[in-house]
Amino acid sequence: MPGPSTPTLPGPRAVFRAASALPLGARLHLAVRRWSAPWPRVVDGLEGERTLLDVGCGPGLLAFLLESRGAAGSYVGIDPDERKVSRARAWLGRLPRRTFRACELSEIRKETFDAVSVVDVLYLVPRAEREAFVAAVAARLDPGGRVVVLTSGGGPRWKRLLDRLQERLVVAVLGWTRGSAVEPCDGAEVAALLAAAGLVDVRVEDAGAGHLHGFELVSGRKPE
Ligand SMILES: C[S@@+](CC[C@H](N)C(=O)[O-])C[C@H]1O[C@@H](n2cnc3c(N)ncnc32)[C@H](O)[C@@H]1O
């Protein structure tokens, strides 16, 4: 948990201003993304990690927010959509300890990390492939390493309907996000997948309070 001196995260306006190197649409998208998801919960769950793999990093918002809190560990963001990776590079530039790669998780074969984050990605992975995908996430963790997954779920039924509508709109209609599927994946499903992958201390927390959408934060640890 953040202490009393932990700086607050940049809000949507600050994200919009910080992304001035990007076209207006991309800046607005980042600001809305900052506003709409429980980022402080995600960042709190990852602070202090020395090495992080961010699976489905999109345009780099998590990297930006972690650095705004002074995180100085190494960061690898991967995303199969080269448009997102180019945007992350154009926004955040290059640092020796931070890389963005346009690739699939299956292409990261040797490296392992203290932590792996999967923020709003699993609904884009077909249900039949999720077990293998989460096993591949777990395989990238060092012994004792942590995985943090943010996924849609929880809250009243109308929030889940809204989530589904927005997910379909953004992927199938507008094409802003690419994925092999648009199939809901809630916290209970993620928790079962993490346990099946051999992770322990698996926890599901409701993270949607105060947000228009329902969110669940799921974490787990690889045994030492
Ligand atoms: C809703 S966006 C979330 C982006 C970022 N994590 C965030 O929260 O701002 C989902 C991202 O997952 C990526 N994605 C889709 N399928 C993926 C896969 N099989 N492996 C990794 N990332 C994937 C998409 O390209 C997209 O950038």
Strand runs, count: 7
Number of domains: 1
CATH superfamily: Vaccinia Virus protein VP39
CATH class: Alpha Beta
Number of helices: 8
Which class of secondary structure composition applies to the elements?
alpha/beta
Q: In order across it, which strands form the biggest sheet?
A: 3-2-1-4-5-7-6
Into which percent range does the helicity of residues fall?
25-40%
What portion of residues belong to β-strands?
15-25%
* Corresponding CATH architecture: 3-Layer(aba) Sandwich
Question: SSE order in H/E notation?
Answer: HHHEHEHEEHEHHEE
Predict the CATH topology: Rossmann fold
The low-confidence runs, each spanning 5 or more residues with pLDDT under 50, are none
Distance between the termini: 23 Å
Describe the main β-sheet briefly: 7 strands, mixed
Name the overall outline: globular
Overall mean confidence score, pLDDT: 93
What hetero molecules are bound to the protein chains? S-adenosylmethionine
Could you please describe the fold and organization of this structure?
By secondary structure, this protein is of the alpha/beta class. The chain has a single domain (12-221), classed as 3-Layer(aba) Sandwich (Rossmann fold), CATH 3.40.50.150. The protein is built from eight helices and seven strands. Helix 1 packs antiparallel against helix 2 and helix 6 (127-139) crosses helix 8. The relative contact order is 0.14. S-adenosylmethionine (SAM) is lined by residues 33, 55-58, 61, 79-81, 84, 104-105, 119-121, 124-125, 177-179.
